[in-house]
Every structure is written in structure tokens, then in C-alpha cells.
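Technical note accompanying the year-one report. For the benefit of new consortium partners, we illustrate the data format agreed upon in the data management plan: each record pairs a sequence with a C-alpha cell string. No post-processing was applied to the example shown here.
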Amino acid sequence: MKSRILAMTVASMGVIALAACNSPAETPAPADATAIETPMAPAAPAGASMVGGVAMSPTDTIVTNAAKAPNLTTLVSAVQAAGLAETLGGTGPFTVFAPDNAAFEKVPVATRTALMAPAGKADLTEILTYHVVPGRLTAADLTTQAQANGGKVELTTVEGDTLTANVNADGSVTLTDQKGGTSRVTQADVMQSNGVVHVIDTVVMPD
């Protein structure tokens, strides 16, 4: 009897072993591709505007922010050539009408070359400071002042001449310079720690 039970036990163990050998090997489940973490781009600071696809931090100065913007490289080079970086990086506040690269390209090449040369520093400084108004003037400020004055407001620039801001029916702002040339504000209210920048599409010229 005992030998019979032993034989049955051995046979059962053989069946179990055979079943284990015939079972397919377990392979680890493929990793979920969606679970792979990718680095997150740093969030733009609160209140930041995008200029040229880059965030302009409202806690940085006009000069620091402008240096980040790929569409303001000509302006930055001009500010450096005129020796105005320290001034525009100061306390302010300033309102800057900032010509983008396309605006500078409207100026004849020979004129741009002459202005960027050491001999043209005085003229370059005069032109650049004509784009700067003391104080912090937002688009809403310009609109309020213009509405009280028949739709336009004359701004006294750091250069000393006046620049006329016209607020159009659609709320956009057009600048008229001393020579009668006009420029359009393409992006308003880029806030800075020491003022505000309004990007424009044409370089304005003093008298």
C-alpha cells in the first residue's frame, strides 16, 4: 500500500514538473511610454510678456530683457554703441518705444553703418533718446491722455523734442515724429522693473 502511494506521489510530481516546463516564460510588461517623464520648460514669470518668443521678466530691467529678445538685437547693439546701456539699466522709470530689427532694416544701410561707427555716436544717441520718454506710460495711460486732448498726446522725449502719440479708433497707437514720419506700436505694455517698453515697426527721427 505504501509503495502504491509513493508511486502515485512521484507520478503527480512529474506531471507538475512537466507542466512547469511547458508554460511560456513570463516577460516583464513593456514600460508605459506615457509614463516617461520629460524635462519641463521653466514657467514664464508671472506678468511676463513674450517678445520674439522669449519671456520678458517684469522684475528685470529694460536692458536685461531686451538682450533676451531675438527681434531686438539691432536695438541692443545700438544702445551699446551709444553708451546708453547703463542709463537704460538704471532706476528710471522710462517708457521706451523700441524699434524691432525689421524697423532698423527700413533705415538705409549706409545710414545705419554711419550711425554705428564711433564718429556717429552723437547722432545715434540723439536718435535713441528720442525713443525714450521719462516715466512709465502704459497704453491705457496714453489712451487716457489722448482722449482728453482730441485723440493725440505730445510726449517730451529724453532727447528734448516731442513725439506725438495718436490713439486710433481700434485702440492701437501710432507715433508721428518731428519729420512727419509715422510708426505703429506692434506690441504694447511689455512691463519692466524700471519702466515699460512698447515695440514699434519703424524708427522715429527727431528734427
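Partners are asked to follow this layout when depositing records. The longest strand covers residues 182-192.
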